[in-house]
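Input chain follows. Return structure tokens only.
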Amino acid sequence: MKNKGFDEFIRQFDGSGIGREGGPIKPDRFFKAGGVILACVVLAFAAFSTIYTIEADEVGVVQRLGKYKETVDPGLHWKLPLGIDKVTPLKVKRILKEEFGFRTTQPGQRTVYSDQEFPDESLMLTADLGIVDAEWIVQYRIKDPKAFLFHLRSVQETIRDVSERVIRQEIGDSSIDESITIRRGEIAINAKRLMQDTLDDYESGIEVVTVELQSINPPAAVRDSFNEVNRALQEKRTAINEARREWNKEIPSTIGAAAQMTEQAEGFRTRRVNEAKGDVALFNALLVEYEQAKEVTATRLYLEAIEDAIPGIGRLYLMDPQSGGQPLQILDLKEAATAASQSSRRGASTR
């Protein structure tokens, strides 16, 4: 559908500033048509610059004449045109990342890393004056859009400077062995806390999500020698552990055997002391009896001794010194008792 007013306007020109009817163009008609076109252009531009959209993972920070006005949520919004209102969308739900000591050139399932080295940010001095090559990642997100946008001049530079400072501080408080082994996790935890404290002091509006140490190694020039030293130390610790295991296996049993022998010796000593005390007491009692009746007591002791000794004698011989040392013919009580027993058994069987 054609615009009749616009066609009429075109028909007034023949390319030389003279109307097609041969007369000059009337100024009022020219300015009237130009004003309509300009108004249409301005209205179209104003309509286009007034409406804007904030994505689902964003918020919009609105400035009016350069001053903060509000923060808007995702969705369709409008603003004052012609640069009066300015909207800056910020990805508040996205986790952002900074890499130190290395760079990722192609992220994905098979990540490709740059071959370039960054010694200015990765080489660090330890507490025992050693040098380590550290690589780590800082992940963060925007927690306060207003502070993030207005309180830091360069967000990336600030985060990198703060992270490098705290990592250098933590590694500088550790020996080279501690940095590589036992304090590695502690360094990452302390670095995250110190980074968050510093960024909060700056009112940066940033939340540190994680600080992850990718690697802490000696510099490449001395890495092989350092690994050899570590292997030697590990072999030393292995030998010490094996020796301690053998010690724990042998020493307790030896100590137990020694304690058992000591207890047995103590028991034997106690028994002998008690026996000696009993013998002394018996001797003292006999001594009292002996002093009261010496001959009777001596005879009784002799008979008791003979009574204890004779049952253990198999065959007894009495020598008569008057007959030239010939043995006396005495009755063998054991043989007599045996013969009598056999005779009684034979008599019982004949009956």
